[in-house]
Design brief:
The chain is α/β, with parallel strands linked by helices and 227 residues long. The chain has a single domain, classed as Spore Coat Polysaccharide Biosynthesis Protein SpsA, Chain A, CATH 3.90.550.10. It is built from 8 helices and 7 strands; from the N terminus they run βαβαβαβαβαβααβα. Strands 3-2-1-4-6-5-7 form a 7-stranded mixed sheet, sandwiched between helices. α5 packs parallel to α8. The radius of gyration is 16 Å and the shape is globular. The N and C termini lie far apart (33 Å). The model has no long low-confidence stretch (mean pLDDT 88).
Amino acid sequence: MIQLSVVLPIYNEDKRLRLCLDRLLTYLYNYTNEPFEIIGVLNGCQDASGTIIHNFAALWPQIKILSLLEAGKGLAIKTGMLQAKGRYRMMMDVDLAMPPTEIPAFLEAIQEADIVSGRRSQLGTSMIRRAAHETFKVLSRPITKVQDPQSGFKMFTGKCADDVFKFVSIPGYSFDLEVLYLADLLGYKVKEIPVRYLHGPDSKINVLRDGIQMAKDLVRIKQLHTM
């Protein structure tokens, strides 16, 4: 049985994907003793990302590739989580802002929870980005009590992932909040742990555009899910 599935959303990542796969495969293959899989979800890519991951998959049977025509991180993560076979399923970002060496901490913490969410130690040097993060964290309080709800590093038990992600409807960045809200409604336990984090210079988030959309999504989440 596969112990760990790592789900990677991939949207035009040809500049960073080789390094990501090299580091992730090296760590999982050499420093873990459990069977693993890496699920790369190509969503709306228009660059060489597909070629790169297919080349890796030709050498590594642990790599599974899913292709979506539409872009959207939430859609990519949902698709990957529902196709994953691992006892534990982790979402990570291609920039590996959280290094693979943090994975054992998640595997330890999930023995006492259904979801483990990484709490980032820093959020980059941009004052605008940090202020936006703090504002959105306050706005998200009615949805979740998790301190850093939009951390891109979360691990789920297989059962929790199957139960929660089948209801996820938001295709963009706010899917994290929908996941946490659904988990709470379904009675799943969330544990937050601190992680090392290095904000990358090539982040695809637009603070103004995505901030407005996230605010709209907060209202939509509560309207969509009443259990």
